[in-house]
Amino acid sequence: MDGEGIRLDRPKARRRSPLPRWDPEAFGRASERIARFLGTGRFIAWMTAFVASWLAWNILAPSRLRFDPFPFIFLTLMLSLQASYSAPLILLAQYRQADRDRVNLEQDRKQNERSIADTEFLTREIAALRTGLGEVATRDWLRDQLEDLRREPDGGRSAPRPGGHGEPRPSEERDR
């Protein structure tokens, strides 16, 4: 080959299409707006007014100005056309909403997992603090000890001191 053949290290150039190209996201947003409007009372009121005026015109207008006589075939065609476009737009809007819901559900699930992990960590930390506090002399424990010493007849002086095993300390010998 002369070097200008098929190269596997480069993507193929896009083919030109005779069809118009549009942004699917923009189309989806537009379909959601239309679907939201189709589900409102305003749409029903406008559609009712449209059909009523159509029927009134084609019943009450002079014969030469009527464009859709009694079986109202053209009106039926217009309503069918509107329905044939409405249904896919509503479905597209529902699919997009389902995709958003799925993403939100996944984010909520991840947030819940993080919250559970944080809660478990905090529970372990609180348990460690409680264990550590169990080894520390608290104010209530010290009060109880002082109250016990005060109740003893000799004021707790006869009890052996820690580190001395009952023997007076050098500082106590000087005091005598």
Automatic annotation (TrEMBL):
Q: What is the lineage of its organism?
A: Bacteria, Bacillati, Actinomycetota, Actinomycetes, Kitasatosporales
The yes or no answer to whether the keyword Protease is present is no
What segments bear the compositional bias annotation Basic and acidic residues? 164-176
Q: Which residues cross the membrane?
A: 43-60, 72-92
**Family matches, as InterPro entries:** DUF1003
Would you say which domain of life the source belongs to? Bacteria
Listed A to Z, the keywords are: Membrane, Transmembrane, Transmembrane helix
Say which species the protein is native to.
Streptomyces violaceusniger (strain Tu 4113)
In residue numbers, the region (Disordered) covers: 147-176
What protein name does the entry list? DUF1003 domain-containing protein
